[in-house]
Amino acid sequence: MVTLAVAEGKHADFPSWKRAFSTLAPDLDVIWWEDALQTPQNVEYLLVWQPEHGLAARFANLRAILCVGAGVDHLLADPHWPHDVPLVRMGGQETAALMEEYVTWACLSLLRETRTWAWQQERRIFHRKLVTRTAATTTVGIMGMGHLGTQVARRLRDFGFQVRGWSRRRRELAGVRSFAGQAELADFLSGTDILVSLLPNTPRTRDMIDADLLSRLPRGAALVNVGRGEQVCEDALLAALGRGHLSGAVLDVFREEPLSPDSALWDHPAITISPHAASEASRAEQAAYMVQVIHEIERGGTPALLYNAERGY
Ligand code: NDP
Asked: How far is the CA of 167 from the centre of ligand 1 (A)?
């Protein structure tokens, strides 16, 4: 029997975790983290999303920390974070499918300018603008061809978009044009109609989508940000939209979340906002994925989506 302490959500959420794990892994002792503090040395796995600083460090014998999100940058801001404990990011079919569908929706929304339709509907305006672009004549450029980026690329390709991907190392994928590193960034951007960020938040990606980068996109291009809010310089984005260099943006993540009611992004007629909702798997899927990870580690294996401190993601 191994022990998993749950430090996700509130205590009231714990019974649903307990239920989800009990059917999948009766061999797992699942316990609320505050109760586990009576004998913290007995806890082998810790499940987290946004734990208070210092919480993880209270468990000295952890074999792994399991994060129910794919982005773990916020965890590492904890000054007491136990960096020697393997940190596993969320994966699984449902997480990928949700992201694939969100990005496909965002690209189609930009092609059809559905933000304008919503604006017109509120005002009862029945105005039609001819749309001549289709997926086949639109190139989507994905920054970040990792676990999610490659699956999104495949889905967009199969839908009929022209797809190109950019990452640190070259990622070959049939039917997707591959670009790698700073040396190929300008070339990647110059042929991109819809730029999608699926980058992790690291010192290198912070503020990456700035005025210079946006200016390298063709006139009329659009942005979809599902990576992290810190990657986009909001002033540069608003300026590029203001002068018509960019035609629209779909934003799911923000520097400050929840997005402040005072933010200029809310009212912009070319910006669609979603509340960091692109991809969050169901509890059942999260539990199933974590059970797989625990079983793999218990068998002596290494889970695929391990945070790598050297890379920073
Ligand atoms: P991965 O770690 O699997 O992939 C990251 C990708 O980014 C890799 O291709 C990597 O390159 C590339 N990359 C990292 N740094 C750089 C850099 N400096 N220059 C160029 N490329 C870089 O992450 P996932 O695909 O699982 O997730 C990506 C991000 O998506 C998460 O970190 C999170 O922020 C966000 N996310 C958002 C969600 C939402 O609901 N909005 C939900 C889930 C995730 P390489 O291939 O060379 O390693």
From this structure: 9
How far does CA 101 lie from the centroid of its chain? 13
| This prediction's pTM | 0.97
The yes-or-no answer on residue 228 being catalytic is yes
Query: What is the 231 CA–ligand 1 centroid distance (Å)?
Result: 12
Positive/negative CA dihedral, 99, 116, 110, 264:
negative
Q: Residue 218 has what DSSP assignment?
A: P
Question: Could you tell me how many helices (H) and strands (E) the chain has, helices first?
Answer: 9, 12
- Rounded Cα–Cα distance for residues 106 and 250 (Å): 6
Q: Using a 6 Å cutoff on CB, does residue 152 contact ligand 1?
A: no
Q: How far apart are CA 259 and CA 268, in angstroms?
A: 14
Q: Which helix (H) or strand (E) holds 15?
A: helix 14-24
Tens digits of residue pLDDT in 201-251:
999 999 999 999 999 999 999 999 999 999 999 999 999 999 999 999 999
Q: Is the CB of 58 under 6 A from ligand 1?
A: no
Q: β-strands 64-67, 45-48: how paired?
A: parallel
Q: Which of 148, 150, 188, 228 to mutate to test the pocket of ligand 1 (most atoms within 8 A of CB)?
A: 148
Contact 40, 60 (CB under 8 A): yes
> Which is the catalytic residue, given 228, 255, 299, 311?
228
Distance 228 CA to ligand 1 centre (A): 9
Distance CA 33, CA 65 (A): 13
**Could you report the per-residue pLDDT of 26-60, keeping only the tens digit for each?**
999 999 999 999 999 999 999 999 999 999 999 99
